[in-house]
């Protein structure tokens, strides 16, 4: 369970995977977009996961209608702002929202740099109105290839003063981390943090590459580290944390069940991790669900769940001063 005497933070939440069902319906109606249904109950199966999908890429297909309604920059701004409202409703003190400007822009021919600006403005307005602090992470969507990711990075770095980190997401097995060495050299030169999706659709070698080739300070998912004892030992010794997303891992069949999830073994080995929703608009969950339902089902005891919550602030891409300010709010 969540300990309300401590700050509650979430570090792995995709802004474009957290679009409200009602917002999809309203934006579709406003822009003349045809949906399978304008009734929320009838549309839900096209957006929500109600059982496991066969692959990670099939899971990603659930983004279809969320992206379909991002017709203009006002829509991007609205979705970003509503992410902050939802974070407040879930009791979060700090949230890191990540998104790929290219992925959000592509469907309707928007400019990635302008998508960045619209989302940043929406998040900052949400911060002011909700009191929830936010960090912004730009994603390079590796599925679009090396050259397009270079252009996407240009769009992200145009707003480097508003961004805390850059991530690499998408088809992990098809586009290995080493292809993006030059991109993340630019990220580090810009003074930004690095978190990389790895060890989800591919094995431990993907995590090693994220660390050694790209300079990853945190790993998105990373649960297949358990297959390599030396990697587990390295993660524990180095303090490189994992952004674990239990229900998402179940929905993408990265694990067969909560009980089969390696979170407990990783905790017992001393690996730091936090709990996250990943794409709550697809998995149809809140952060409370990950603490109250998923964590106990994975076999985590009360102390380990508290450690995960404590780690969520410790691993955040925040200054020590900012972390202290968030602690002092509670």
**Topology-level CATH name:** TIM Barrel
In the CATH hierarchy, what is the class? Answer: Alpha Beta
Number of strands: 8
Tell me the radius of gyration. Answer: 18 Å
Proportion of residues in extended strands = 5-15%
Unreliable parts? none
In short:
The protein is built from 17 helices and 8 strands. It has helices spanning 21-31, 40-47, 56-60, 64-68, 73-89, 101-106, 112-130, 146-157, 181-189, 204-212, 229-238, 246-251, 263-268, 280-283, 287-297, 302-314, 320-329; strands spanning 9-14, 94-99, 133-141, 165-169, 193-198, 218-221, 241-244, 273-275. The longest helix has 19 residues, at 112-130.
Note down, in words, how this protein is organized.
- With 330 residues, this protein is α/β, with parallel strands linked by helices.
- The protein has one domain: Metal-dependent hydrolases (TIM Barrel).
- 49% of the residues lie in helices and 13% in strands.
- The protein is built from 17 helices and eight strands.
- An eight-stranded parallel sheet has the order 1-2-3-4-5-6-7-8.
- Helix 9 links the parallel strand 4 and strand 5.
- The protein is globular.
Give structural attributes:
49% helix; alpha/beta; 17 helices; 330 residues; 8 strands; TIM Barrel
Structural topology:
Elements (H helix, E strand, L loop, with lengths): L8 E6 L6 H11 L8 H8 L8 H5 L3 H5 L4 H17 L4 E6 L1 H6 L5 H19 L2 E9 L4 H12 L7 E5 L11 H9 L3 E6 L5 H9 L5 E4 L7 H10 L2 E4 L1 H6 L11 H6 L4 E3 L4 H4 L3 H11 L4 H13 L5 H10 L1
Parallel strand pairs: 1-2, 2-3, 3-4, 4-5, 5-6, 6-7, 7-8
Helix pairs in contact: 5-7, 7-8
